[in-house]
Specification:
By secondary structure, the protein is mostly helical. The chain has a domain at about 25-60. It has helices at about 5-10, 20-40, 45-60, 70-75. The radius of gyration is 14 Å and the shape is globular.
Length: about 80
Amino acid sequence: MYCLQWLIPVLLIPKPVNPALVNTHVMFMVLYLIGFFLERKPCTVCSFVFLAAVILICYSGIGNCLFWASQCEGEKYDT
């Protein structure tokens, strides 16, 4: 589980409040994760634990996901 020490901090990076910066945040997260998986090649257990944590965070509530904004957030800024 040594490889989780590089994946867990990704879950702690806060999503920006400004909607204009969400795309930059998503691009950073995706590129970091792709680079991490290509360079470090984490074990299968660590990969499944991290993916399970991301899925639980993304589907636990509105606006919690690291990788995209929910529709409810977009409607909030249209007014």
